[in-house]
């Protein structure tokens, strides 16, 4: 079944790109930009009515929301090793994916918008600082969880690690203090050959 | 297997409470408040290291993140009818759950904080307005999706409807304009006997 991944690699499309690389899936990458123009066209809005990236066409199955896409790819290709075989494990995949989406991403985004993404005149420094302040308590939870374990769920790298590591891609800037377990885990994730191949797509299109 | 749901019903604990009611699961409700003191105690932090609500103990399986909990409950009790039997359907459950978490909840929360939740002197009216402005484009996507269909995924109520309807609990205030399909869908969701039973817990503890 043909898999197409829409969205420039320098966007949340990095998540499905990384997942496809981990799973060894052949795919076609359509590196459209989140600002358009292609993502504003009716043909794309029929794939993703939000006009955002990423979205995928997985043999006719159309899907948006980057973290939903990685869950779907991991679950439907269990031989790829990103899913779990136990109810406890699957629950953990859901938990850390939703934790990434709910507890980390809005703050990481707020910080990034008000330090880099928005035009300088629209940035509000106090909002960037407030986001960093709030993130520290949450990263402390992650740090305690990763003490004495290598991966978020079970004994191997999973889609939970992929999702959270990608949401935390700017961990160097987001985390204060040493956070040794979190930083080592993050480096383990990003050093994976599949991650390297996915991130190389950012350089190629930059 | 015994199921315990932690968290006052007037919190995101309404989501697992509603799911348990839909699935016909017996459960013990521990209505602790998100402000503590019980949720700051080591015994609770061992269940949910974030110190937030909700969390569950499902026969020894500990889980936090409300939307992960509802996915877990729905998936492990497929006879309850909230899950899907097809890969396309399951992908849709993930998609709309993550869409609720990513596209709706941060804005709904920003609006609520700056109109009701924060002490009046900390509220910033422009942030409430900005949240409402952004929400309209997203609700327009939902409105188009629900035109001509009764439920978000497939032909029946699912955990996707439960998750998004709960995240949109303040739809009356969040949605401008008529949004006829969205409002009718939301009423269909909240009129369900299981939803009524869950929401009644808010009155009981108020």
UniProtKB/TrEMBL annotation, chains A, B:
Keywords: Transferase
Protein name: Glutathione S-transferase family protein
Lineage, opening ranks: Bacteria, Pseudomonadati, Pseudomonadota, Betaproteobacteria, Burkholderiales
Source organism, top-level taxon: Bacteria
Domain GST C-terminal per the UniProt entry, residue ranges: 86-206
Alphabetized Pfam families for the sequence: GST_C, GST_N
Species name: Hydrogenophaga borbori
PROSITE patterns in UniProt: GST_CTER (PS50405), GST_NTER (PS50404)
Domain GST N-terminal span(s) in chain numbering: 1-81
Family stated for the protein in its record: Belongs to the GST superfamily.
GO molecular function: transferase activity
